[in-house]
Specification:
This protein has 296 residues and is an alpha+beta fold. Helices cover 34% and strands 15% of the residues. Keywords: Iron, Metal-binding, Oxidoreductase, Vitamin C.
Length: 296
C-alpha cells in the first residue's frame, strides 16, 4: 500500500470528513465523480485491522434447512439441535426453506439498488444523522468517531415496534421494504423459538422477554472502488443486537471469524444468514449462570 506522507502536517482528517459528509452524496457520489484514487479518509491504517488470514483448514459453514419445522416433531427436534450447535460453535448459520419467497428476496435486493442508484439530488432529502428519523441514509453511521472510514453507503429504517408511515419511506423501495421486513419478523419469531428450545427453555421464552418486538432494517451499498486493496467495505465488528438476519447478494465478500480464521460465507441462492448478536449471547449467558447457581 502506498500512501503519500508528504502532506502529513497538513492533513486535517476532521475537516475532510466534514467536507465529505456535507456533500450528502456518500461514496456513490465519489464514484459518480469519476475518482481514480481513494480519498485519504478511506485509507485503512495497517494497525487498525488484522491482516486477512488465509486458512488451509477447510470449514463447512453451517446451513440449517427449516423445511417441515411446523409439521414434523422429529424434524423440528433435529433442527433445534442444529441451530443450537451452530449458535454455540459459530455464532452464525444460514437458513434455507425459511418461508420467504425467492421473488421477495430478489425484489428486496433490487429495491436497495434502486434507492442508492437514484439521482443524488433526490436522495439528499433522506440524508441525515438524526437517530430519531424513521428512515435515513448516510455514509458510515460512525463517520466522525471511527478510526477508519468504510467504503459503503447505508440506509436504515425503524420498522418495529412502531411501523413507519408510508410517506416516511422512499417510494422506490417502500412496498418491498415493508413486505420483506414483515416476513423477516415472522421468521425471527420462529428463530427465537428454536433458540429458546436449544437452550432448554419453553419456545416462547425469548419472545416473552421482548426479543421479537423491534426491527431495524439496514441496506448497505458498496459501489465499485478504484483501490479496493486499501480500504474496507465493512470493518470487523460484532452486532450488538439480539439477532441479525442478513440477505446477501451473489457477489460474496462476507467473512466471519471462526477458530482464529476468516471464513468466507458462500452466497447460497434463497438463503439468509443468521448472526447471534451480543445482546442475545449476554442474555443466554446470564440465564444459564443464574440457572446453574440456583439449581446446581
Amino acid at each position: 500500500m502506498e500512501v503519500d506522507n508528504t502532506n502529513e502536517a497538513k492533513y486535517d482528517r476532521k475537516a475532510e470528513l466534514q467536507a465529505f459528509d456535507e456533500t450528502k452524496a456518500g461514496v456513490k457520489g465519489l464514484v459518480d465523480a469519476g475518482i481514480t484514487k481513494v480519498p485519504r479518509i478511506f485509507v485503512q491504517p495497517s494497525k487498525i485491522e488484522d491482516s486477512t488470514i488465509h486458512s488451509d483448514k477447510k470449514f463447512s459453514f453451517p446451513v440449517v434447512d427449516l423445511d417441515g419445522i411446523k409439521e414434523d416433531p422429529i424434524k423440528r427436534k433435529k433442527i433445534v439441535q442444529e441451530v443450537g450447535h451452530a449458535s454455540e460453535t459459530w455464532g452464525f448459520f444460514q437458513v434455507i426453506n425459511h418461508g420467504i419467497p425467492t421473488h421477495v428476496l430478489e425484489e428486496m435486493k433490487d429495491g436497495v439498488i434502486r434507492f442508492f442508484e437514484e439521482d443524488t439530488e433526490l436522495k439528499k432529502q433522506w440524508y441525515s444523522r438524526d437517530v430519531s428519523k424513521e428512515f435515513k441514509y448516510n455514509s458510515n453511521f460512525d463517520l466522525f468517531g471511527a478510526p477508519v472510514t468504510n467504503w459503503r453507503d447505508t440506509f436504515s429504517a425503524t420498522i418495529a415496534p412502531i411501523p413507519p408511515k408510508p410517506e416516511e419511506l422512499p417510494s422506490v423501495c417502500r412496498d418491498i421494504l415493508l413486505e420483506y421486513t414483515n416476513r423477516v419478523m415472522e421468521l425471527g419469531a420462529t428463530l427465537f423459538e428454536l433458540l429458546s428450545e436449544a437452550i432448554g427453555l419453553e419456545p416462547n421464552h425469548l419472545k416473552d422477554l421482548g426479543c421479537t418486538e423491534g426491527l431495524l432494517a439496514l441496506g448497505h451499498y458498496y459501489p465499485a472502488c478504484p483501490q479496493p486493496e486499501i480500504t474496507p467495505g465493512t470493518s470487523k465488528h460484532a452486532d450488538n443486537d439480539f439477532l441479525t438476519v442478513l440477505l446477501q447478494d451473489d457477489i460474496g465478500g462476507l467473512q466471519v471469524r471462526h477458530q482464529n480464521h476468516w471464513v468466507d460465507v458462500p452466497p447460497v441462492p434463497g438463503a439468509l444468514v443468521v448472526n447471534i448478536g451480543d445482546m442475545l449471547q449476554a442474555s443466554v449467558t446470564f440465564y444459564l449462570s443464574y440457572h446453574l447457581y440456583y439449581v446446581g
